[in-house]
Structure formats: C-alpha cells, structure tokens
C-alpha cells in the first residue's frame, strides 16, 4: 500500500474510533448523538441557517439533512421559522432547550476530543496535522 493509501486508511480508522468515543460519551452524559451535536453547532453558528447550509457544511444529502433536522425538531431542540422574504423556505434555529443541550454537551465534546488528541500528540504535530487536513478538505469542497 502506498503511503497515501495508508494515510487514508489511518484517517478513516481514527475518524471512526474517535467518532464512536465522543458519541458514546455525549449520549451517556447528555442524551445527544454526535451527529445531532454537529448539526446543532452548525445551526447555532449561522443566523438564518437553512437546510442547504447544513448540506454544504456537513457534506450530506438534502434528504439526510432534512430528516436529521426533523429529528431535532421532534426532540424539541430546533425549530423551523418561516423566511419572511420567501414563504417557500424556512430558517433553522435552536430552541432554548436545544441551546441548553448544546451548551452542556460542548464541554464534554471538547474534553473527549482533547483526551484523544492533544493529550497524546504534541501541539506542533497537531498544528501540522490540522493544516494538512484543512488543505485536503478545502480541495475537496
């Protein structure tokens, strides 16, 4: 296997294991899945957030984004607000319960990410990894 091929395998394995670790902790402590946390972070960071904003940021299909938002709405964490300029579309915003859940989960998320990254890898190496991943991500987007 080429070095690039092994890098890809390692990235996928690390992402899967890291996702599972963070997801399990968020579920246990806050009753929220990592995917939900991710979407709620996108919604909270973008005033006037639309489903298409989630599609572009998270790299999922419109159908997957819409169904995921429906689940957030059903959980009481998000609501759709009519777009006053275009009655055919809506904006997404977190409810007070959603904002509270996200705020509570944020520290847990950050602790778990730190546990598996900065506690194991020196800061300079993490910065290099982050820059390399940003370069690849930008090219893919």
TrEMBL record:
Single GO molecular function: DNA-binding transcription factor activity
Domain HTH marR-type, residue spans: 4-138
GO BP: any one term: response to stress
Keyword field: DNA-binding, Transcription, Transcription regulation
PROSITE patterns per UniProt: HTH_MARR_1 (PS01117), HTH_MARR_2 (PS50995)
Entries under PANTHER family matching the protein: TRANSCRIPTIONAL REGULATOR, MARR FAMILY, TRANSCRIPTIONAL REGULATORY PROTEIN-RELATED
Protein name per its UniProtKB record: Winged helix-turn-helix transcriptional regulator
Species per Swiss-Prot/TrEMBL record: Nonomuraea zeae
């Amino acid at each position: 296997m080429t070095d690039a091929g092994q890098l890809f395998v390692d990235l996928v394995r690390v992402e899967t294991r890291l996702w599972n670790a963070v997801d399990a902790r968020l579920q246990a402590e806050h009753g929220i899945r990592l995917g939900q946390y991710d979407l709620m972070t996108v919604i909270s960071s973008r005033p006037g957030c639309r489903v298409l904003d989630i599609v572009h940021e998270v790299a999922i299909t419109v159908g997957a984004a819409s169904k995921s938002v429906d689940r957030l709405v059903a959980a009481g964490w998000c609501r759709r607000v009519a777009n006053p300029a275009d009655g055919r579309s809506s904006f997404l915003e977190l409810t007070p319960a959603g904002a509270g859940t996200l705020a509570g989960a944020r520290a847990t998320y950050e602790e778990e990410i730190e546990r598996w990254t900065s506690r194991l890898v020196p800061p300079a190496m993490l910065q290099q990894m982050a820059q390399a991943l940003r370069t690849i991500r930008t090219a893919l987007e």
